[in-house]
Structures are given as C-alpha cells and as structure tokens.
What we know:
It contains six helices and eight strands, in the order αβαββαβαβαββαβ. The longest helix is centred in the N-terminal third of the chain and has 10 residues, at 17-26. It is α/β, with parallel strands linked by helices and 177 residues long.
Amino acid sequence: MDNKPILLITGDNPKGPRELFSRLDDLAIPHSTMTHDPVFTVEEAQRLRGRIAGAHSKNLFVRDKKERHWLVSCLADRKLDLKWLAAELGTKRLTFCSARRLGGYLGIRRGSVSPFAVLNDVTGIVRVALDADLLAAEPLNFHPLDNSKTTTLSTAGLLRFLTAEGHRPHIIRFPDE
C-alpha cells in the first residue's frame, strides 16, 4: 500500500472524513458511520452485508480520450460493460483512472471511490453518474473518503450533497440483466 501523502492537482491537501461529516452536518443531512477493516473490492465489502443495512455500491473513476472524467456509482452487484457505459455517457471509450489521477482529482486512494469524493474536486472536472436503481434504494452506503469506514445516508441526502457541491448527477438506467 502506498502511504505517500496525497496532494490534489492544485497542490493542496485533500479533505478527509472529518471535513465530509462537517459538510453533511452543515447541509443538515443525517448520516451515520461504521468503522471496519479496510475493503478494496466489492467482494471484500460483501462481508459487511447484514452489519450495515441498505444498498451497497460499486464505484468507478473513469475517463475518456478527451480527458473527461466520470465518477460512476451503481448497485454493487451490477455487471458493468464499459462499452455500454461509454455510450450511455456520450463518449466512445472509457478507461480506469490511475492512482495518480484518483489522488490528484478526488484526493483518495484505491478502494475509497464514492460520490463523497467530489468534495475534493476543486477544479470541477469530475462528472457524476448514478444508477437509477441505486437511487431507488434506501438507505445508501458509501465510503466517506476512507475505505475503513462506511457512511449511511438517504438518497435525498446524497442528492442534496452532490447539488451543494456543484455536481448534479447524470442518472443512468441500466438495461435489465
């Protein structure tokens, strides 16, 4: 695991869970957080099911050749076809972002991707796309910029946070599997 400090592309230190929780409180968004062993994959996170009620997510940070970046959140058990997702987002080809981009744009490490990371998108370059079926679930669970914690909040709370951060989400309707 890389323990080097993360710096945003502006050279600033990223905000962490404490600042996120303060922002949620400022927005009057109820939330609760559970601490657990760090998880890096959906499979590892499955052991939390039953201990943490609500919908769990799969989160990706991707980009296209034109340097457009998307943070995509969907239901954890979704099978993702990147070709389909690219077309849905209006581009041709998506690739996963490097650890350097993850730190530079979102201020997080691998395994901590979630919509909360837009708190660190100081340049406004990241677009957010959310699964319509995820938004239909209650409550929602995401890592709060740290993959050793899971924060639970309502769908309305997530949408209020994203709007307040200037990241109104694009809603994705996945095909029936």
